[in-house]
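Q: Sequence in, structure out?
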Amino acid sequence: MGWLDAILGRTKPVKPDLDALFALPSAAVTLQAATGMVPTGTGSVSFRAAEGGAFATLERDVKELLGGRVEEFTDSYGYTWLLVRRTPDAVGDLVTELHAVNSSLEDAGFGPSLLCSLVSFADPDGRRLAVVYLYKRGTFYPFAPLSGQRRDNALELQARGVLDGELPLEEDLSRWFPVWGAPGL
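A: Exactly. Output:
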């Protein structure tokens, strides 16, 4: 970063560390022990689809790689979501597949199109929680939706306290974007 960038308050973007996703299985154990939130077996990757044959081929290859465990959705903002399903006790396999989707997009030059990845959790009382990985920030944050597009802020802050030290957490709470209607959540 140059001196002009420092004066103008510009910062270098954080380089995403997709391998941070592999910390999720152990974080899931910690989260379950502290909050009773258990993995649901679903996770998803969100990205902005690009036009052209190269992207279409890549997307087809990713779907073939994951077979019947993947479904595609498009949200109201135009982002594509690939929802991956596994058994709830296979968090490691789920994370490996989410990593494969992210890596495939990144390796093909579509990294800037990636928005986020998430793994879903729930408890016996019906509360839901997603641990969201922000690709462009290289950080995680908890998102706990309630009905009517409201958030369970107490659960999010509790999860943040539990996951601190387990995952690189997003410190700026204004970047804890709601992912309303995310598939699998």
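Residues 21-169 form one domain.
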